[in-house]
Design goal:
The structure holds 2 protein chains of 2 kinds.
Chain A: E1 6-7, E2 10-16, E3 19-25, H1 31-38, E4 57-60, E5 63-66, E6 79-81, H2 94-101, H3 111-124, H4 130-136, H5 147-162
Parallel strand pairs in A: 2-6
Antiparallel strand pairs in A: 2-3, 4-5, 4-6
Chain B: E1 16-18, H1 23-33, E2 37-40, H2 46-51, E3 59-62, E4 72-75, E5 78-82, H3 87-91, H4 94-99, H5 101-108, H6 113-116, H7 121-126, H8 134-140, E6 144-149, E7 152-157, H9 158-161, E8 162-164, E9 167-168, E10 175-182, E11 188-195, E12 206-214, E13 220-228, E14 235-236, H10 238-244, H11 251-264, H12 275-299
Parallel strand pairs in B: 1-3, 2-3
Antiparallel strand pairs in B: 4-5, 5-10, 6-7, 6-10, 8-9, 11-12, 12-13, 13-14
The chains are: A alpha+beta, B alpha+beta.
């Protein structure tokens, strides 16, 4: 955050899952790298690093974004939510629990991105149709298979969150 | 996608960043940065281009903290859409859906949900892709692009903004501030359809936008038709518009409009489809989009 050009290491502050973090980073450090390397929050995964796979999905001031296509400095001061903030104490978030129960994980690499995207979907549309689920998750489905488990998990999470 | 500068980490090369708080500050920053300066809005195209070596900005001028560029205002005069407003904010806006349903659908087609959290209509336009989903809609809605630069502000119709693939009228040091669209007149509505081989996350093979105005008897008083991905830039198809004007949007008029779209399209052969295939899709989408716009317009009379 600057009104004069800056270069080299900059102090960048963000709030992640309710906790304040300040760290030094180059202007072009990606938010994904900032979260992983500077905040030590390695739950956000980096897959393709070019905005295609969705594994790096986080929420910035409520909106889901690709953290690999966002400079950390450009969201300085923002509230960021990552997968680490979903479970409360030892209790999984209903979306996480549903992914576990319905075998929605496969190898699990892309799962953090899926979880945040599904959380965002169910906040906007509490009872989505299959079409709405597929559309919302289109930025996460990549090249593995096993999407039926994910579909089942989203339907199950939607039910859990309404009761 | 080839990573031309793979091996050296582009993120660690010397680069400057600035986040101006006003249009005037942004103009100053771009002036100081010379030809290595580039504006950054959502970054969903620029960061990929920087990573792959396609562009190499050394000063990023972040346009996401300038209130004028982050404003979406709808009044009786029409829409003022700040160049940095994220796509998600646009298509979640109920007034946008009601007044400009075609443009709003086009915005909802940009990338994935996560891309839409950052991506902007301004960036979609300034990136200059012939297949950009929002551009045909901007053309049929007679959008005006308000540009800032060291010489002051100038206004350019959206139909003249893009000059070729990746090329726009923006001069060094200039940037898009907002897009202005007049309020729809009584009985007017728009629609946008695109064709892609899959259902999501792809680039248009063809896109077709139609805006039209129906009088109380259902006769078409005014029409505009634009196509994307069939020429070096999105194009207005006057022949298709004139086929619709004066008609009741009957099958014969729709077919004439489709034929005009077929004739006007100058597509290329590529992996997304042959030129002939694209011409045919342009015809079909023009007719469907006109039908959709007409249905909406009837609901407004």
């Amino acid at each position: 955050m600057s009104t004069k050009p800056v270069e080299g290491l900059q102090a960048i502050s963000v709030t992640v899952n309710g906790e304040d973090y300040t760290a030094l980073a180059e202007p072009r450090m990606l938010l994904s790298d900032f979260l992983r390397h500077e905040c030590g929050l390695t739950g956000t995964h980096v897959g393709c690093e070019q905005g295609v796979c969705g594994a790096c999905t986080v929420r910035v001031d409520g909106a889901i974004v690709r953290s690999c296509l966002t400079f950390a400095i450009s969201v300085a001061g923002s509230k960021i939510d990552t997968v680490e903030g979903m479970a409360k104490a030892n209790e999984l978030h209903p979306v996480q629990a549903a992914f576990q129960e319905e075998h929605g994980l496969q190898c699990g690499f892309c799962t953090p991105g899926f979880l945040l995207t599904v959380q965002d979907l169910l906040e906007k549309i509490p009872s989505p149709t299959d079409q709405e689920i597929r559309e919302h998750l289109s930025g996460n489905v990549c090249r593995c298979t096993g999407y039926q488990g994910i579909m089942a998990a989203v339907r199950s999470a939607a039910q859990k969150m309404q009761t | 996608m080839p990573l031309e500068n793979e091996g050296e980490d582009w993120r660690m090369l010397d680069a400057q960043y600035i986040s101006p708080r006003s249009v005037a500050e942004a103009v100053e920053a771009l002036k100081g940065g010379g030809k290595d300066a580039m504006v950054l809005a959502g970054g969903t195209d620029l960061l990929v281009q920087a990573r792959t070596g396609l562009r190499d900005p050394r000063l990023y001028v972040d346009l996401k903290r300038i209130p004028d560029l982050m404003a979406l205002d709808i009044s009786s005069k029409g829409l003022h859409l700040g160049a940095s407003v994220p796509a998600a904010q646009i298509f979640e806006n109920e007034d946008m859906k009601a007044l400009y349903p075609g443009l709003t659908e086009a915005v909802d087609l940009i990338g994935s949900t996560q891309i839409q959290g950052r991506a902007t209509v301004g960036g979609n336009l300034c990136n200059g892709s012939p297949a950009a989903d929002t551009v045909p809609s901007l053309l049929v809605l007679e959008a005006i692009c308000v540009i800032a630069g060291s010489e002051g502000e100038r206004r350019v119709p959206a139909s003249e903004f893009t000059t070729g693939p990746g090329e726009t009228v923006l001069r060094p040091g200039e940037f898009l501030v907002r897009i202005e669209i007049p309020a729809p007149s009584k009985g007017a509505a728009d629609a946008y359809l695109r064709f892609i081989p899959r259902t999501e996350m792809d680039i248009a093979v063809v896109g077709a936008a139609v805006s039209l105005t129906l009088d109380s008897s259902g006769c078409c008083e005014a029409a505009s038709v634009a196509l994307g991905a069939v020429a070096p830039t999105a194009i207005l198809v006057e022949g298709a518009a004139s086929a619709l004007i004066g008609s009741t949007l009957d099958e014969a008029a729709l077919e004439r409009a489709g034929s005009a779209a077929y004739e006007a399209a100058q597509p290329i052969d590529d992996k997304r489809g042959t030129a002939e295939y694209r011409r045919r899709v342009a015809s079909v989408l023009t007719q469907r989009s006109a039908r959709m716009a007409a249905e909406r317009a009837r609901g407004r009379n």
